[in-house]
Amino acid sequence: MVTCAKCGVENPDEANTCRMCGNTLGTGMRHCVSCGRSIDWNVNVCPYCGHDFRIVLQDVAKMTMSTGIKVLLYIVSILIPIAGIIIGVVFLLRDDPEEKRVGKICIILGIVMTLLTVGLSLLFVMVLGFGTPGDNMTPTTTLSDIAITDGYRFNFVSINSNVAWSDVSIVVTDAQNSVS
């Protein structure tokens, strides 16, 4: 009698499949994973290629992150700080210590670049001020001088600001001295 390995039911010796579950009844032979030849089920070492079945297969080695990918993530963190912070958080939540380190660096770069951007923006605003160019600048006008027999005549072109005429002062200068 042959016992089914799947369900444990005894079957006649000439049976190829189990009468209860339909499982194929083995002949006590298996195939070597290295060379593919049929070998006895109880053999620990393949007699043809020498493969040892007692050695437990180890997990496949994990792929490490390439240097190019790391550099690309760092560049993205510098150019787009918010994306760098998001990438950093995603990598920081992973189990691999190398990916955690890359995540920390991306977060640090993202925060530093955000602070640098805000700082430079504030400096720009403090130096140049807010608003349109005409709001905080002294209004100027273009004068055209036409020589006439008794002196010079000045024609004012429009002033580009909403200024009352009482706030306008005119300074006339020549090469040597100034007259108001």
Brief synopsis:
The protein is an alpha+beta fold and 180 residues long. It has helices at 67-79, 81-92, 97-128; strands spanning 2-3, 10-11, 29-31, 38-40, 143-148, 151-156, 172-173, 178-179. Helix 2 packs antiparallel against helix 3.
The global form is: rod-shaped
* Structural category: alpha+beta
Termini separation (Å)? 127 Å
Along the chain, the helix and strand elements come as: EEEEHHHEEEE
Which runs of at least 5 residues are low in confidence (pLDDT < 50)?
Answer: none
> What is the count of distinct domains?
3
Radius of gyration: 44 Å
Largest sheet report: 2 strands, antiparallel
Q: State the strand order across the main sheet.
A: 1-2
How much beta, percentage-wise?
Answer: 5-15%
Helix proportion range:
25-40%
Highlighted features:
alpha+beta; 3 helices; 3 domains; 32% helix; two-stranded antiparallel ribbon; 180 residues
Please explain how this structure is put together.
The protein folds into three domains: 1-58, no CATH class; 67-128; 143-179, no CATH class. It contains three helices and eight strands, in the order ββββαααββββ. The protein has helices at residues 67-79, 81-92, 97-128; strands spanning 2-3, 10-11, 29-31, 38-40, 143-148, 151-156, 172-173, 178-179. Strand 7 and strand 8 form a beta hairpin.
